[in-house]
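[recover] target loaded
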């Protein structure tokens, strides 16, 4: 009898692991720009949002392993009568392979900012997940959580996040039908927008670039703590292939490239500080001209770890 109970418990635990939530979010809220009275009305937002994300399954996938660590920083800029404007910064991280299986060894997979988020929120809100109905609060969160999960899956399997990027694209189209600011689908290619992000992510012409991102994690960063020299050589090769892709395959500015280097420029500068290959830095500056000064400092050995 005891053995049967033990087996049942193990099956339940195993099922709970397989179907565990994909994300573990930590939310920080800054209300300094709001009046004291208004601050009271958003005092539960941190807990409400953490509860919503951390208790929600965003996919039907059998999620294995630890949830994705995500930091969400919300900076309120104005608000009254339950209508608010805020800036939101999202940083998702991925665990790296290492000899001691240390879960503190991570690298960002996505750093992204929502600069002008307008939404309605009520004290102690009961937030619910419904990707077929647009909500100015939860749908924006859902969009970014789909991206977070998609980028994470792409880092473990070539084009592994495709289903999630399609979900994000559907949300953009849903927001566009409701004429929500920031969800417009009529935007110039190369313009930083939600639509262009998901357009590139779901466009087969950009699959080779996404495969290079996968290689960056699996063949490069995951090997860093086992053979640093070989890992850096592999990342150098991947950067060169990215530069070739940009030169030979791209006809417009890429938001996907911008997202990648906004996420990884600082790490790359630290990793390759005083690296002997000048061509590597030329490729980095070609791919990511906005951070050219950072790469020059790295080339000259001026980056402090």
């Amino acid at each position: 009898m005891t053995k049967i109970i033990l087996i049942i418990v193990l099956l339940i635990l195993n099922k709970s692991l397989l179907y565990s939530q994909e994300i573990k979010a930590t939310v920080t809220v800054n209300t300094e720009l709001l009046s004291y009275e208004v601050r009271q009305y958003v005092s539960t937002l941190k807990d409400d949002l953490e509860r919503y994300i951390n208790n929600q399954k965003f996919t039907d996938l059998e999620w294995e392993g630890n949830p994705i660590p995500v930091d969400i920083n919300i900076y309120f800029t104005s608000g009254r009568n339950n209508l608010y404007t805020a800036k939101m910064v999202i940083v998702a991280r991925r665990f790296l392979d290492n000899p001691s299986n240390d879960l503190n060894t991570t690298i960002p997979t996505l750093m992204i900012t929502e600069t002008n988020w307008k939404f309605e929120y009520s004290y102690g809100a009961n937030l619910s997940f419904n990707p077929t109905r647009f909500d100015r609060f939860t749908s924006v969160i859902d969009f970014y959580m789909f991206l977070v999960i998609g980028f994470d899956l792409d880092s473990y399997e070539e084009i592994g996040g495709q289903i999630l990027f399609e979900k994000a694209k559907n949300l953009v189209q849903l927001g566009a039908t409701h004429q929500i600011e920031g969800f417009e689908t009529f935007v110039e290619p190369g313009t930083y927008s939600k639509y262009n992000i998901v357009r590139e992510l779901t466009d087969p012409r950009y699959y080779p670039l996404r495969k290079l991102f996968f290689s960056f994690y699996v063949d490069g960063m995951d090997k860093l703590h086992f053979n640093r020299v070989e890992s850096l050589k592999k990342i150098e090769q991947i950067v060169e292939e990215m530069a070739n892709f940009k030169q030979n395959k791209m006809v417009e500015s890429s938001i996907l490239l911008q997202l990648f280097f906004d996420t990884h420029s600082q790490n790359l500068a630290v990793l390759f500080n005083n690296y002997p290959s000048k061509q590597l830095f030329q490729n980095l500056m070609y791919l990511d001209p906005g951070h050219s000064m950072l790469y020059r400092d790295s080339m000259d050995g001026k980056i402090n770890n």
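[recover] notes: Residues 24-159 form one domain.
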